[in-house]
Each structure stands twice: as C-alpha cells, then as structure tokens.
Amino acid sequence: MSHYEKAWQAAHLRIADAAQAAGRDRNSVKLLAVSKTFPPEAVRSVYALGQRAFGENYVQEAIEKQRALAGLRDIEWHLIGPLQSNKARLAAEAFDWVETIDRLKIAERLSAARPSDRAPLNVLIQVNASVEPTKSGAPPADTLALARDVHRLPRLTLRGIMGIPEATDDVGRQRQQFGILRDCFDACWAAGLPVDTLSMGMSADVEAAIAEGATEVRLGTAIFGPREKSKD
Length: 232
Ligand SMILES: *Cc1c(COP(=O)(O)O)cnc(C)c1O
Hints:
Blueprint: H1 3-21, E1 30-34, H2 40-48, E2 53-56, H3 59-68, E3 76-79, H4 88-94, E4 97-101, H5 104-113, E5 121-127, H6 143-151, E6 156-163, H7 171-190, E7 197-199, H8 206-211, E8 216-219, H9 221-224
Helix pairs in contact: 4-5
This protein binds pyridoxal-5'-phosphate (PLP).
C-alpha cells in the first residue's frame, strides 16, 4: 500500500468512526482532500484511489495544477482560501465550488463571471465562528441576510456554510465554535434556503466537527502529510 492509500483509508476510517459515534450515517459526510502546496502528482495519486473533491487555497496555484491534470474526469475543485476581488473572474472559471464567500460584492463578481457553458458555481458562505476580529468570514449575525442575497444571484448555487474556527486542543471549545456554524446553517434551512452543505473540520478537529453536524470535512495533513510551514 502506498503512503497515500494508507492515509486516505485512515481518513475514511476516522470519518466513519466519528459518524458512528455521533449516530450519523457515514455517507452523510463528504471528504474534501486539501491539496494546497502539494504537486499535481500527489493529487493524481489520491484521485487514483477514488477521491474526486480537492481543495485549494490559492487561485493561481490551483490553475497550474489543473493544467497539469487536464483530463482527470469528474474531478471537483473547491476554493477554500480567501478570495480577492481581482481574482474573482479567474476563480469563477477555474472552480466548481467557492467556499469562502464573506461579502455580497465578491459573490456578485463570481456570478457575473461564471461562464455560461458551465453549471452555476456552487458556493458556501464563510462564517467567522471565532471571536478574533482578524479572521475572515461573515459575522454569524449577518449570515442569513448574506445567504439570502447570494441565493438570488443567477449564476451561483448557494449550498451552505463553511467555517474555520480558531485552532484549539480543547474539545469543548471546538464543539462550541462548530455549534455556532451549525446554528447558522440551521437558520438558513429554517428560512427556506435549499442548503445541504456544512463544511467544517480539519485534520486536528474532524471528530468534533462531525459531532456537530459537518457534512463536509476538509483534510490536508491527514491525507498528504505535513506542509512546509512557510506556505501554509
Ligand atoms: C489548509 C486548510 C485545510 C486543511 O488543513 P489540515 O489541518 O492540513 O487538514 C482545511 N481548510 C482550510 C480552509 C485550509 O486552509
């Protein structure tokens, strides 16, 4: 078994165990493989195992990888890093999902730039569930209004909520922050928005995220190994 095969299977086992512990169906949690900083060959290896959804943080890096991997069928690219307005056009062309919508303006730009021969771009509202003012994401109190506005944009499909809580080893604190994200998701659902995706949980806190209702977990280190510090 290759390194990737072992790691990928272990990741699936972790998800299955966490789902079972939470009394949830294993198939209700999707695995996003976060391939940022890793070369196209690493993506190709994990794709060969059956993985289809990959997460990237930088638009330019993703585009270069996509060029190198042209021809991999059904591959699904998610942007999970912050998006600047001047990169919106490139992102609208290069990705299947953008998970980091934190203001209406960027959503409007993505909608306007989404090519007409592609399906509408799937998007998530990024919510800031930590109290740190510097973290990106919309404040929880603004989420529903933003979600409603995004839902109206013609070339986007609002799918749900994404968040990156502050890192902590305190499981209670992890769950509290994930709970805030889940409340935002539930509020969208209760308001009649057709959301189906709650993207939260990374290599260090996937169990707490699944306990709080994550439908997508984003695993980088757990699949590809440690990244070089400088590029994270
Ligand atoms: C890098 C990154 C991940 C993956 O983090 P790991 O700890 O390596 O699993 C997940 N989500 C986002 C938004 C990231 O930037």
